[in-house]
Amino acid sequence: MDEAWGAVIAGIAAAIGGGLGGWVTARAAVKQALAAGREQQRNWLLDRRLAAYSDLLAAYNVLRERLQVLVEAQAQADPFAEPGDPPTPELIRAIGQFHEGREDLARAMQRIELVGPRVTMQPAVDGIRQAVDHVFQTRVGYNPDDHTDDERRHWLAAFDAFNGVETEFLDLANDVLHSKEI
Questions:
Q1: Which of 25, 134, 168, 172 is least buried, going by the fewest C-beta atoms within 10 A?
Q2: Nearest alpha-carbon partner for 169 in 114, 109, 98
Q3: Phi and psi dihedrals of 117, rounded to 5?
Q4: How far apart (Å, rounded) are the C-alpha atoms in residues 43 and 36?
Q5: For residue 7, with 0-12 CB atoms within 10 Å meaning exposed, 13-18 middle and 19 or more buried, which class applies?
């Protein structure tokens, strides 16, 4: 009879040990699955952020090129034009292309607002928006042949700000992409 109790106790111990082992294994598997899921989510989000940041920089560079076209079109304006004369077709085209570039940049900024992180990237996006608006406002009515020193100073300050915000954005984007946090 003692042998029977020994077998029963051994059976119960084996069942408890098996159940406990199964529970520990299941718990470890769940933890591993959750960690893998978080890592996949992090990688997905980083990929989306990298794409959005790259799109913004590409749109920004296109806008910079279009600004250069606008500056060149203004420099090539008819020297005999009177103040009330319509702008040249080249200038009209350059202004239109600059507007299109601003719209493309605005769409790229909206994508960044979606993938964030909003708290970190919003100041950089706002800085770009303000710099682009300021450079546009100071340049569209600018006449290279007939401007005041104050107008030229405003244009150069706007242009410097336009170039400077890209570096600020790049620094923040690098910080976000290389951060341990999502």
A1: 25
A2: 109
A3: -70, 130
A4: 10
A5: exposed
In order, the DSSP letters of the chain are -HHHHHHHHHHHHHHHHHHHHHHHHHHHHHHHHHHHHHHHHHHHHHHHHHHHHHHHHHHHHHHHHHHHHHHHHHHTS-TT--TTSPPPHHHHHHHHHHHHHHHHHHHHHHHHHHHS-HHHHHHHHHHHHHHHHHHHHHHHT--TTS--HHHHHHHHHHHHHHHHHHHHHHHHHHHHHT-S--
Within a domain: 3: no
Enclosing domain of residue 48? 43-177
pLDDT digits (tens, 9 = 90+) for 106-158: 999 999 988 989 888 999 999 999 999 999 888 887 777 667 888 888 888 99
Report how many domains make up the chain.
Answer: 1
Say if 8 falls within a structural domain: no
Residues 6+ apart with CB under 8 A from 127: 165, 168, 169
43-63: pLDDT as tens digits? 899 999 999 999 999 999 999
Is residue 111 one of the residues assigned to a domain? Answer: yes
Hey, what are 75's tokens?
Answer: 């420099």
Residue 69 corresponds to which tokens in the numbers above?
A: 């076209």
Q: What is the CATH number of the domain that holds 98?
A: 1.20.1420.10
What is the model's pTM? 0.76
